[in-house]
Each structure stands twice: as C-alpha cells, then as structure tokens.
Amino acid sequence: MTVVEKQRSVRAVVIHIEGPLRVPMIGHVRHKVAALLRRGERKILLNLAQVSDLDAAGVGELLQGIEQGGSVQESPLVLRGFP
C-alpha cells in the first residue's frame, strides 16, 4: 500500500491511497492523518480511487483516521472513491 500526499487544493489536503488496504496493516493512513492534524490541517480528503482491495482491517484503518479528527460528524476527513 502507498499513502502519498500528492497535492493540496485550496480547500483540503488530498491523500492518494494506492494498492491494497488490508491485513497486515502498518498504520500508514492513520499516521499520515495524525501528522496532518498536528500540522493544523482541518480538511483532509482521502482519495481511494486506486485502492485495489479493501478488507475489514482497511475499513478499521479508515475509521481510526476519521476518529482522530473528533466525532464522525465533525471529522475533517472526506473519503472519495473515484478519480
């Protein structure tokens, strides 16, 4: 799995995730989101268009990233599954 902050739009930081998002997980997504939140970013978009496989651990990784931003309703993250 590759997690890359490739671009920044005016409204949000975009993180592109490529490859499988499944067990075994190292926490790349969670760590990248945490670093951005520490940096003061409040709008983060996760582009999942290039995710080739997703299992329950991958969903858990995404949810943990969302929870780092506060409640789900107040989360700074947006998940996007298309280019």
**What is the second-level CATH architecture?**
2-Layer Sandwich
Instruction: List the secondary-structure elements in sequence, H or E.
Output: EEHEHE
Tally of alpha and pi helices = 2
Strand arrangement, major sheet: 1-2-3-4
State mean pLDDT (0 to 100 scale): 76
Structural class: alpha/beta
- Poorly predicted regions are none
Please sum up the structure shown.
With about 80 residues, the protein is an alpha/beta fold.
Molecular structure report:
With 83 residues, the chain is of the alpha/beta class. It has one domain: Transcription Regulator spoIIAA. The chain has helices at 28-38, 56-68, and strands at residues 2-8, 13-21, 44-54, 77-80. Strands 1-2-3-4 form a four-stranded mixed sheet, covered by helices on one side. Helix 2 links the parallel strand 3 and strand 4. Helix 1 (28-38) packs parallel to helix 2 (56-68).
Comma- or semicolon-separated keywords:
83 residues, alpha/beta, Transcription Regulator spoIIAA, 4 strands, 29% helix, 37% strand
